[in-house]
Write a structure and sequence with these properties.
There is one protein chain. Helix content is 24%, strand content 38%. It is of the alpha+beta class. It folds into two domains: 40-163, 2,3-Dihydroxybiphenyl 1,2-Dioxygenase, domain 1 (Roll), CATH 3.10.180; 177-300, 2,3-Dihydroxybiphenyl 1,2-Dioxygenase, domain 1 (Roll). The strands form two sheets. Strands 1, 2, 3, 4, 5, 6, 7, 8 and 9 form a nine-stranded mixed beta sheet that branches.
Length: 302
C-alpha cells in the first residue's frame, strides 16, 4: 500500500512538473503578430559622421561597393530640436542612412543599429511590444512619414520607419547582414523576440563557431544566422572579451571578389583593419572607411 501511494505521488508530481513547464513555455511564447516588413533593400544601416568627413566617407564607400548617394538634405530628424545633413547611400549590396549633425545629437540617436521600413507604424510598434521589445522613442512625424526607436532584449536598439508614399527600390544583388553582438544571458530572449517580430527563421545555430571570426583564434563561440523579409542577421554570442574592432561593426556586406573589393577600398581612402581570413566557406575582412565607419566585408570562399 505504501509503495502504491508513493507511485501515485510520483506520477502526480511528474504531471505537475510537465504542466508547469508547459505553462512557462506558453508564458514565454509571444503572441502571433502581423508581418510588417517590406524588404531588405529598404533597411538601412545608420552611419553618423562629422560634416568634414561626409564627402570622403560617401565617396570611399561607393567607390568600394558601387552605387550612389542621394541629394544631401538639411533636416530635423529627431523629435526634439536638432540639425543634421542627411543622405541615403544606395549600393548593390546594402543601403545606408548617413547623418552629419551640426548640433549635439539627442539621446538615444547614434546608438541604433539600423532602420527597418514597416508597412504600418502602429502595427509594427504593437508587434515589437508583443515580442519583448521596448519603445524607447515613441513615433514622431518626419517630412515623409513616421519614425520610432525600439530596444530589444539585450539592449539592441533599432529604428523603425514608415513612409506616407511607399518607396520603390530595386532588389539587392546581395543582401547584407545586420551583425549583433550579445551576451549569453540575453541571446535566447533576443532571438525569440526577433523571430517573433520578423517572422524569420534560424538558418543555422552553431554552438562552436570558429573563434577567429571574433578575433580569438583557437577558441569557439555561438553564432546564429537568421533570415526574414527584413534581410539577414548574424547574432554573435560572446562573453564580451572582444579585441578591436570586433563588436563595433554594424553590418556585413557580401561581395563577389574580396581581394578586388579591398583594393578599391584602400585606393579610395579606407583602411583594412583585419586582413582577409577564411572561416566556414567564407573569406572575411574588416574595413574602416573615412569618418570611422567600420564594416565587415566577405565573399564566398573560392
Amino acid at each position: 500500500m505504501i509503495v502504491k501511494h508513493c507511485l501515485i505521488r510520483i506520477l502526480l508530481l511528474s504531471s505537475l512538473v510537465v504542466t508547469a513547464s508547459n505553462a512557462i513555455a506558453r508564458d514565454h511564447a509571444h503572441s502571433p503578430t502581423p508581418q510588417v516588413g517590406v524588404g531588405a533593400q529598404y533597411d538601412t544601416t545608420h552611419v553618423y559622421v562629422e560634416a568634414a568627413d561626409f564627402d570622403r566617407f560617401v565617396n570611399s564607400f561607393t567607390a568600394t561597393l558601387g552605387g550612389k548617394g542621394s541629394p544631401r538634405i538639411p533636416s530635423t530628424l529627431t523629435p526634439t530640436p536638432s540639425k543634421a545633413d542627411f543622405q541615403y547611400v544606395w549600393t548593390p549590396v546594402g543601403t545606408l542612412s548617413t547623418f552629419a549633425f551640426s548640433t549635439p545629437i539627442p539621446y538615444p540617436f547614434g546608438s541604433e543599429h539600423t532602420g527597418w521600413l514597416v508597412t504600418d507604424m502602429d502595427l509594427a510598434l504593437q508587434a515589437a511590444r508583443d515580442n519583448g521589445a521596448k519603445v524607447i522613442v515613441d513615433k514622431w512625424p518626419d517630412p515623409i512619414g513616421y519614425d520610432a526607436i525600439i530596444q530589444w532584449p539585450g539592449g539592441i536598439k533599432m529604428q523603425l520607419y514608415w513612409h506616407s508614399k511607399a518607396p520603390k527600390y530595386d532588389a539587392l544583388e546581395a543582401v547584407p547582414e545586420t551583425r549583433v553582438y550579445i551576451s549569453r544571458d540575453d541571446a535566447d530572449a533576443f532571438i525569440t523576440s526577433i523571430l517573433g517580430f520578423s517572422h524569420g527563421k534560424v538558418v543555422s545555430d552553431e554552438p562552436r563557431a570558429p573563434g577567429v571570426e571574433i578575433g580569438r583564434p583557437n577558441e569557439a563561440y555561438r553564432r546564429i544566422r537568421i533570415e526574414s523579409v527584413f534581410g539577414k542577421m548574424t547574432v554573435l554570442v560572446t562573453d564580451g572579451h572582444l579585441p578591436y574592432p570586433y563588436g563595433i561593426e554594424l553590418t556585413g556586406y557580401e561581395v563577389a571578389d574580396l581581394k578586388a573589393t579591398l583594393a578599391k577600398a584602400t585606393t579610395s581612402g579606407a583602411t583594412v583593419l583585419i586582413e582577409p581570413f577564411n572561416s566556414e566557406r567564407r573569406d572575411s575582412a574588416m574595413v574602416q572607411f573615412p569618418g570611422g565607419y567600420i564594416a565587415e566585408i566577405h565573399a564566398p570562399a573560392k
